[in-house]
Each structure stands twice: as C-alpha cells, then as structure tokens.
Amino acid sequence: MYGSRRKDLLGLLDGSRKEPADDTKKSKWAMKNAKVVTWLPSSVTPEISKGLRSFHYASKYGLT
C-alpha cells in the first residue's frame, strides 16, 4: 500500500497527475498536492528550500 501512495504523490511531482476538472476529485488532489508542496522544501537544504517556497503546485518544482 505504501508504494502505491508514494507513486500517487510522485505523479504530482512529475506532472503525470494533473489537477482534475471534477470538483469532487479536485479536493483530494489539492490535499495531496499540499502535502508534497509542504514536504519537499522541508526535506532539502535551506539554500534549496528558499527557491522552492514560491511554488503552489508540486509539478512546478521541475523534477521531470
């Protein structure tokens, strides 16, 4: 189960999981996106983190 969750979040980073148009799915997507946007800057050095703070979408981190 952990692997599928990780893969689901990875899709936000590489851009393969786009923001859905359906409002019911958009809420779940937004929560997962927020998780990644919060987690990634706190997982890297402070110098790198400063450059990541302005992004609101995980896919904008450019990890593709």
Automatic annotation (TrEMBL):
Residues 1-26 have a biased composition (Basic and acidic residues). Residues 1-27 are annotated as: Disordered. It comes from the Eukaryota. This is Uncharacterized protein. It comes from Dovyalis caffra.
